[in-house]
Design brief:
271 residues, mainly alpha, globular
């Protein structure tokens, strides 16, 4: 049965060495550019959430570009997940903050969404992809806001931090980059994870802003989410053959009442 051979996406890993050899063989064939465009189009065809997210960031950036500085600043502050907004309307700002960017054109975010995160969506599927991004964004934001609140209460940071702007998709992206480590197999997984930890730890040590803390929190959340998902998937995969055998046995077991003539009548127990 198909169910017996099903493997959850979290358990479908790739070996970078094998992929590299396949890429070399692919590169040696003619019409490389045309085939590359076709392959990229195939990736985007199964990554609607990544495309929609990137397009939304472009639309919100264009909105800010057409607005005055004062109006744009008010839009950013109203969508920021700062302490003030989180105390007043947490759900609204948690959703809105993920779709606005403060500054220039979000080249980096859109590029990552249309490459690495598109590959992640192709691997996990759109629903799992959205769950990981949402968990990373919400979890890192809540942890950061709690830390800011405690530091303000202890007079360790100025009160104006409670009104600072904090928008963008970087928390969700950071969590998904951590989850991508579980797509790799062997030493490549540890190299990818170690590289991410070093990069974010250096940014935290060098900057030490609440946004740097949020990025590091999101990275940890991504690692934890991936580890839990892989563990649960392994348990489900190991128990699937038992469920298939049990289901097959129940289907093969004869129903004595239905096998008898007139066994489906009310006097045989069927109401």
């Amino acid at each position: 049965m198909a169910l017996a051979g099903y493997q959850p996406p979290w358990l479908r890993t790739v070996d970078p060495r094998t992929e590299f050899h396949a890429l070399r063989a692919w590169w040696g064939r003619p019409r490389r550019l045309r085939r590359a465009v076709a392959e990229y189009r195939d990736v985007l065809a199964v990554a609607p959430a990544s495309i929609a997210y990137a397009f939304t960031l472009f639309v919100t950036w264009w909105t800010l570009r057409g607005a005055s500085d004062m109006v744009g600043r008010r839009l950013i502050l109203s969508a920021s997940t700062n302490l003030r907004n989180m105390q007043r309307d947490p759900i609204q700002v948690l959703v809105a903050s993920a779709f606005w960017t403060d500054g220039g054109f979000p080249w980096g975010d859109i590029l990552i969404l249309l490459t690495l995160l598109a590959l992640a969506e192709r691997w996990l599927g759109s629903l799992r992809w959205m769950l990981v991004v949402a968990i990373g964004h919400i979890g890192a934001t809540v942890l950061t806001v709690v830390g800011i609140s405690r530091r303000i209460d202890r007079d360790l940071i100025p009160v104006r931090v409670a009104f600072a702007s904090d928008v963008g998709p970087s928390y969700g992206i950071s969590a998904m980059l951590a989850v991508l480590a579980f797509r790799l197999r062997g030493p490549a997984r540890w190299i990818w994870a170690g590289g991410l930890v070093c990069y974010y730890a250096y940014a935290l040590w060098h900057g030490r802003t609440f946004t740097d803390y949020g990025h590091f929190f999101a990275l940890v959340i991504g690692f934890v989410t991936g580890a839990i998902a892989v563990k649960v998937s392994r348990r489900l995969a190991s128990s699937a053959p038992d469920r298939v055998r049990a289901g097959r046995g129940a289907l093969d077991e004869p129903d004595s009442r239905l096998d008898q003539p007139g066994g489906d009548r009310a006097d045989n127990g069927h109401q």
